[in-house]
Amino acid sequence: MSGEPKPVPRPTPETRPYWEATQRRELVHHRCDGCGAGTQHPRAICACGSTDLTWTSCTGRGRLFSYVVVHRPEPAFADEAPFVLAIVELEEGVRMTTRIVDVPADPAALPLDMDVELRWLERGDVNLPVFAPAAPEGT
Amino acid sequence: MDAIIIGAAETDVLGRNPDQSVLGLNVEGGLRALADAGLEPGQIDGVAGAYSPHGVAHALGITPRWVDSTNVGGCSFLMHVRHAAAAIAAGHATRVLVTHGESGRSRAGTVPRPRDPQSWTGQFEEPYGAKPPYTRFTLPALRYLHDNGLDETALAQVVVAQRRWSSRVPRAGRRDLMTIDEVLAAPALAWPFTVPMICMLTDGGGGLVVTASEHATAEQLRRSVKVLGTGESSDPLLVAQVPDPVGDSAARRAADDAFAEARIGRSEIGHVMVYDAFAHLPLIGLECLGLAPVGKAAELVAAGETSPGGSLPLNTNGGGLAYTHTGMYGMFAIQEAVRQLRHEAAAQVPDVSTSAVLGYGGMFTASSVLILARD
Ligand SMILES: [Zn+2]
After folding, report:
1. Domain annotation covers residue B28
2. Which residue intervals define the domain ChsH2 C-terminal OB-fold in the entry (chain A) (predicted)?
């Protein structure tokens, strides 16, 4: 074990609904009721001008949008290297930084646009949304 | 716009300098820029910088009538020049000193930056191990390469091209020529980014003096560089939410505004500096500037067009990848553009009279562009 603990998020009043949902192992996004655009973190006004923004459940399905394989992390994460740090685009159109787990940290196993699905990484009493390659249809 | 740069200089030491604090580097950068302009501190009435411009003013005995402490990361200094031009046009200042100093390597006198688990990055990036810039700024790169039919070879080509420049620059920190294979075979810190595709980490600083022609002497005008056009914009704080680095991005908006103000066409640009903390940025930046079609910058680099002798000389000091990178590199991109336009650069481009400088800040969060020229 390295000396420094891994960082955990500390919610602000605006982001509390997002992190409370993760306690229930539910991934939500802040969705505009006007145009349907969503973001991972809350906004006061959508780019379309609407103020009707609601925390909405995600299906947990998405695609691998981009990534790097981290070989030299900051010291707190040394025990996890190499790991796949990724941008996943959710079915809802929201992009988020996350990890790809349950897969070799090898580009050969990580084609872009690969279907991924939600998993949970426990970090103390915090649940972090991460993703794994999606199981084939019907399994 | 009538703004001109009449003083430009870097600190004597670039690289490792544990004996000088951040304040000291700013002061030295400022004093050398003043000397370059033939000015005394008392002739400065405006100050700008990303690190305590009021503190720098006090240390230099300057009593400012105008202060700009914009800090949006590495491109802050491009914005300072833009804001200074506007302030001078408005009569809020006559001569503005912009300084940069950063002890990126030695951390002397550096403001500590503890984790902030309530910040956007602290909540949505850092818990995944995404704190070092080479794990965040780099995240969209594979998408860019994939969408344009490219692979990591395109990143290596950028390094190869910029080393051709830095090998001619005595002050550059990384001067060895490299082959594509050597770049790709170097250790990967965050694949596909190997060590030479990642910027240096150094101590250093610099300064600029901005004024208007009517406030300048004949001698100052003789070496002056015109600020023809400027632009700035911002994008979401989290790298995953940046819509498209080469599409409707802060860099493209800043570039379009700068070219519109400058009233010159892209084909008139003879020299380019693109903020290159990482090797994908020169490709993306050339496309945001409209100097290459989307997805085609890598072809220009591979064909040698950005290398010495090419049609679009790019990052001619070697860039953040090979010249120096203190953390907020933008000051050094401007310095090299000024040197080229004054025909005083170490690796001088023949007959150059226009330069486009594109900066990024806070990953892709902010961007600014300057179009500079000399008669
Ligand atoms: Zn909307």
Report:
1. yes
2. 55-120
